[in-house]
Amino acid sequence: MRKPDVDLRGLNALLVEIFGPQQEFTCRRTPTGSSTQVYRVDRGTETFYVRVAEEEQASLAPEAELHRALHAAGVRVPAVVHYEPFDHTLARSIMVTTEVHGAPMSASTPTRAVAEIGRSAGRDLARIHGVPVHGFGWVRREHDRAGWPLRAEHRTYAEYVDPSAVAGALAGIGFSTDQVRAIERLLQEAVETGPTAGVGSVAHGDFDASHIFENDGSYTGLIDFGEIRGTDYTFDFATLCLNAEEVPPAGKLLGFVEEGYAEVRALPDDHTRRIYLAGVLSAAHRLSTWYERDGERAFDGWFFRWIRDCLVGMLESGRVPTAG
Fold first, then answer.
1. How far apart are CA 105 and CA 117, in angstroms?
2. What is the reported pLDDT for 243?
3. Neighbours of 24 (CB within 10 A)
4. CA 247 and chain centroid, separation
5. For residues 129 and 201, is the Cβ–Cβ distance under 8 A?
6. Percent of the chain scored above 90 by pLDDT?
7. 131: helix, strand or coil
8. Which CATH number fits domain 8-98: 3.30.200.20, 3.40.50.2300, 3.40.50.1440, 3.30.420.40?
9. How far apart are CA 52 and CA 95, in angstroms?
10. What is the largest CA-CA distance in the chain?
């Protein structure tokens, strides 16, 4: 469900403080974004975006610091123009960034351009994964914690994956006893092949074609780091595969992203298997979380049913949806 607007008078007052009273601008809500309120600000020939924290208790400091670190490293992400730890009128943490030019990849992206856009996005993804996170799972966003270095909610990868609890929850979604046991075995394998120390890689968290921007067939950057977490590097690859139905042309992107990624960071020999395990992990976590939150109403969502069918298909085929 799309959240209502913030106090627009309060937001405009903050923007006047940021840009100055002599700078005319317009501000309007973007059509995308449901859990996160995002506003587009046009000032002359320049465009900026305002991200509002999802909750009063959540700080955008980790996102702002990550943006700054990635931008300084040459990764094509929005630059931070202003970070407001907590605006008392809006009762939220606020971040203002520059625009990434162009539009998201879509089914209309020229086929000849998909390869180079995918490779470029893969190179940036590899650089993103070079940022460490102390712990695993969602990046912690408490206001009383420093935003950098990034820290996550679980000490170990095993605590984050939690094979028995996550697999067991799937019985209520219609998975058979044999399927639940198979999922638990695969999740345990993911633990055994995943990060062994208490440090993971930062994941974009929602890496798919809708967040890869291009302009006239040329890659321009990645947006939306609202779901960052600490995990194994394969998480973002699995997300790209699982979101293929929702956001084309993800199914054509995987191989090109891998090629670009390998130019920056070597992929291990068991890369394909680890993407498969990450796909099972991501699907199982999503389903158990959504079902715990929404109960039987979860089945009303087409994407819930899609992810459930993806997990069934992965159990039967032994590969992620876009692996061919």
1. 9
2. 85
3. 9
4. 14
5. yes
6. 90
7. coil
8. 3.30.200.20
9. 7
10. 67
Q: Could you report the per-residue pLDDT of 262-318, keeping only the tens digit for each? A: 999 999 999 999 999 999 999 999 999 999 999 999 999 999 999 999 999 999 999
Q: What is the mean pLDDT of the chain?
A: 94
Model pLDDT for residues 113-166, shown as the tens digit of each residue: 999 999 999 999 999 999 999 999 999 999 999 999 999 999 999 999 999 999
Task: Return the structure tokens found at 27.
Answer: 């501000």
Other Cβ atoms closer than 10 A to 230 = 29
The two tokens of residue 238 are 């699995």
Give domain limits for the chain. 8-98, 103-317
Residues in the chain: 324
Q: How far is CA 101 from CA 49, 79, 213, 223, in A?
A: 12, 12, 7, 10
Please answer whether residues 205 and 133 qualify as being in contact, where contact means their C-beta atoms are separated by less than 8 angstroms. Answer: no
Place of tokens 């209309």: 108
Task: Categorise residue 44: left if φ over 0, alpha if ψ from -120 to 50, beta otherwise.
Answer: left
In CATH, which of 3.30.930.10, 3.30.200.20, 3.40.50.720, 3.90.1200.10 is domain 103-317?
3.90.1200.10
User: Residue 178: CB partners within 8 Å, gap ≥ 6?
Assistant: none
